[in-house]
Structures are given as C-alpha cells and as structure tokens.
From TrEMBL, chains A, B:
Residue span(s) of domain PhoU: 17-103, 122-204
Protein encoded by which gene: phoU
Pfam families: PhoU
Keyword line: Cytoplasm, Phosphate transport, Transport
Matching InterPro entries: PhoU, PhoU-like_sf, PhoU_dom
Protein's name according to its UniProt entry: Phosphate-specific transport system accessory protein PhoU
Subcellular location: Cytoplasm
Length: 230, 230
C-alpha cells in the first residue's frame, strides 16, 4: 500500500513537470509568434491550450483520488494540496500564453507589437520563457535556490512592464489607441505570467519546508504529523 | 467525532461566506471610488485587502487541518477541496478590487474614468457588485439556480468590456494614451472579476452534483464514496 502511494506521489510530480513543459512550449511559441506576427504559430498555441487544461483536470482528479484512497497526512498531504494549487497556476499560465497568441491573431496581418516597443517586448518574452524553464526545473528537482532565480526574473519583468507604460505615456508616443490597448494588455499578460511562476515556486518551497506562511502554528503541527486538539 | 467534523465543515462554509462578504464590500467601494475619484475610499479598499488575504490563508489552514485530522471521503472530501479552490478565487477577486482602487489613487486628483466612458464603467461596476452579492448568496444557500444568474451577469460584463474597446478604438475617441491605458486595464479588471465568480459558482455546483467535469469516471467513483481499483 505504501509503495503504491509513493508511486502516486511520483506520478503527481511527473505530471506537474509535464504540464510545466507544455506551458514552456506555449509561452515560447506565443511570444515568438507575437514578435514575428506568425499567425500559424499563434493558432498552434491557441489549439494546444486545451491539452494543458485537460492535463490540469486529470491531475486534479488524481489528487482527489489520492486524498480519498490514501488519506495522506503530514508532508504527503501537503504535497497533494500543493499540487492542486500548482496545477491551477500552471493552467492559468497556459491561458496567458493563449491570450498573447490571440492578440497576435487579432491584429494579423498587421504587426501585434506596436512601433517603438519591439525590443522591450522581445526581451520580456525571452524572460518569460526563462521563467517557464526555471519553473519546470524547480518542479523537477525541488531545488529551492531556483525560487530566488524566479524572483530576480520577475523583478526584471516588472521593470519591463513599467518601461512599457513609460514609453506609452511619453510625449514621444505616436501610437494610435489600438496600439496603446495592445501594449497595455500584452505587457500585463507578460508580467502576470511571472507572478504566477513565483506563486508556484512558493508553494513548492512550502512543500519542502512546511513554511506556507511563517509563524503559523497549525501548519507546524501538521508538518510534525501531529494531531491538533480543539 | 462526526459531530466535530460537521461543525468544521459548517465553519468552512461560514468562513467562505464571510470572505465573500468582504469581497462584496471591497468591489462596491472600489467601483464607487473609481467613479467619483474618492481617494479616501480607494485607500480604504487597498488597506482592507490584507484582511481578505489573511482570512483566505486561515481558511486554507483549516481545510488542511480537516484533511489531516478527519480524513474525509466522498462529498465531505469534495467540500474541503472545493473550499481550497474557492478561497483562492475569492482572494483573487479581492486583489482585483484593490487594483481598481489603485488606478483611482494613481490618477488622483485627476478623474480615473476617461471621458466618454463614465456611464459604461458605472454600469460595469454595478454589475460586479451584483455579481459579488449573488455569489455570496450562492455560497450561503447553495442555491444552484444562482449559477445561471451569475452567467447572465458575466455575459453583460463581457458586453461592457467589448463596448469599452469599441469606444476606445472608434474615430470619436479623443483620449490621450493615459486614458486609453486606464480604460483598458479597468475594463479588463471588471470583466475578470465576474469570470472568477462564475468559476467559484461552478465549484459549488460540483460540490452539489459531483459533476466537476462531466463524464469523468474517477469523480463518479469518488462521489459514490467507493474505492478505485488500480
């Protein structure tokens, strides 16, 4: 029984890594399609999002199955609960890649990236791909030092987001309203993507350390595998 | 023991209703502050968001505690898992109210609502307050007919979102880039708020019917409280 259980937990982890790889491919393609107005590549991302959604639902079903059958406690319980949250964040990251692809398709054959913002958005896209790769690595290895790498990438994306607004709001900005709308939405999506990744990484850190929210006695008791007296 | 357990589940529900009430107050104040450039009211929303976040974390801790101590199965298990997801969505809805309040504060003493969009944004704000009230009622009563009410409100908010873009992209639009950015972000926030509410309502429906995703055998087995054979 214990062996079956640990196989299930490994299965949970392997599925999270798999979904994270799909999200990495999605954001890579979506940001490249956005940069090059490649509508075929954008369509590919939009179509593939259903697969990410489906795999997230399957993972949730597995997690609920494990809770029902194996009734895990302590660290095992935390893994399963965190997996439910991580899958929700990964699914949302996939949605963001899809939104970026939709912006590309909506503007086609016009360029989706407004004039004057090409280098900023290219850089932000590359940062998001690095975010997704780092997150996948963190899920695979549980190497918590990668949380700091993700935070640093997230800071750079926040800087990029601010610089988009600075450009759009500067006197030099000659974009039409449509360009302003596109820049605003794209920048918001690219920045949110990294927020979700940091949120996932924090959940993995909680798994490893039991420190979901510092100084919470309840969690400490659960981590210790103990009973809580009312 | 069973009595203690059912008290815990009632506690979970009561806390979800409480958080939903706080979110309702937040979106009501945030949209009114946005409409009237009331920076004091906006500050109130920004400060109060920490309370919503804290209550969501406390609810998560309670849910994990219940899973660890009571090891619920079947419908009870589904209630606890759904509560974890609902609390995450409510917390996110609180964040959106905060973002709208931040837009108001950022523009003060200028008006946050761009010229020509006052009536659209007022209407969308009122719809979001109705969304939050309906959601609270659904959490309190588990009256699933309210899911349809929420879907109808969500459709109206999608229409509002589209009409904002139509205005901003029309020849008649004379707004500066800053006004276009504000309109884009505000409209996106107001529309997303309702998406989250529909997502919560679907989770409650899943609780009542076991129909998280139709035609999923695993869920059917769990609902029946049965064991799953590998």
């Amino acid at each position: 029984m214990r062996e079956v259980f640990h196989q299930s937990l490994e299965d949970v982890q392997a599925r999270l890594v798999e979904i994270s790889e799909l999200v990495t491919a999605a954001i890579d393609k979506a940001t490249r399609a956005f940069g090059t107005s490649d509508v075929a590549l954008a369509e590919e991302v939009i179509e593939a999002d259903a697969i990410i959604d489906e795999k997230a639902v399957e993972l949730d079903e597995l997690a609920i199955q494990i809770l029902a059958r194996q009734q895990p406690v302590a660290r095992d319980l935390r893994i399963v609960v965190a997996a439910l949250r991580v899958s929700a964040s990964l699914e949302r990251m996939g949605d963001i890649a899809e939104h970026i692809a939709q912006l590309t398709r909506m503007r086609f054959p016009e360029r989706a990236i407004p004039k004057g913002l090409k280098s900023t958005f290219t850089k932000m896209g590359e940062l998001d791909v690095e975010v997704a790769r780092t997150l996948t690595e963190l899920l695979r290895t549980e190497d918590l030092s990668l949380l700091e790498t993700l935070r640093a990438l997230d800071d750079k994306l926040d800087d990029g987001h601010l610089s988009v607004f600075e450009k759009v709001l500067s006197d030099a900005w000659k974009g039409e309203a449509a360009a302003t709308v596109d820049a605003t939405l794209a920048s918001r999506y690219l920045e949110r993507f990294a927020d979700h990744a940091v949120s996932v990484a924090k959940k993995v850190a909680y798994l490893a350390t039991g420190d979901w929210k510092p100084d919470t006695e309840t969690i400490a008791v659960i981590v210790a595998g103990g009973e809580i007296v009312d």
